[in-house]
Specification:
The structure is a single chain. This protein has eleven helices and ten strands. With 274 residues, it is of the alpha/beta class. It folds into two domains: 210 residues, 2-enoyl-CoA Hydratase, Chain A, domain 1 (Alpha-Beta Complex), CATH 3.90.226; 48 residues, Orthogonal Bundle (Lyase 2-enoyl-coa Hydratase, Chain  A, domain 2). The strands form two sheets. The protein has a six-stranded mixed beta sheet, with helices on both faces. A four-stranded mixed beta sheet has the order 4-6-8-9. 39% of the residues are buried.
Amino acid sequence: MASLRDQFPADVPDQPELVAVEREEGGLVWLTIQRPEVMNCLSFPTLKRLRSLCAELAADESARVVLIRGAGDKAFCAGADLKERRSMPLERVPHFVRNIRATMDDFEALPMPTIAVVNGVAFGGGTELLLSCDLRVASTAAQFGLTEVTLAIIPGAGGTQRLPRLIGRSRAKDLILTGRKLDAAEAERIGLVNRLAAPAELTAAARTLARQIADNGPVAVRAAKAAIDQGCEQPLPQGLKTEAACYERVIPTEDRLEALAAFAEKRKPVYRGK
């Protein structure tokens, strides 16, 4: 398999400052896209940084929940960097498209739960990024849209596939074929967003949700995510077998025994992910 470096043109620089990483006690990991001056758009170097972080997190058993947001208060992510795209040679475009698609796949494949913290606009690739996350918490001022048809292209990073799986085919066609934008209230109503919070309370609301997840048995949380993600793509009989296989993973764990002991001793369990 080609290394991550080999999947990008040789002149795409490593720029760690484009996505900041903050770790909190309890296994929470915050990723912040640091391009507020361009609405946190996704450039080649930004994609490279995100993919590198996903590779690191995929092997990090201490990470219990990953949250991603955009810097500033105007944008989560406004999609691909169109200024970069305008000057991009034609032969370079397929490399970009493959990597923006792979970035969404990388997020979706992370073994721990992921939360998109939508602090502003999320258009095009920004909506596709939040679709690749497990849960979405948004500001009441947020806006969403798969607007690609207005630019004579289509969503190419999973939007045509993940959106209908989340909100239904008819609603997805309404949004994708018109390219229209929707506000936070409609996004919550149709199931695109799990929870809303006032702008000033967004970080706290996302952190509360993340801690509710992180406080549970880490092995069990990962197994439950795998059972849902894998099983829902299968016929029910096969999905039930997938669930059974995921259940088998938690039976021999120390955390399961700790839960039983804590229940008997009337105390809060201390899970170690083992």
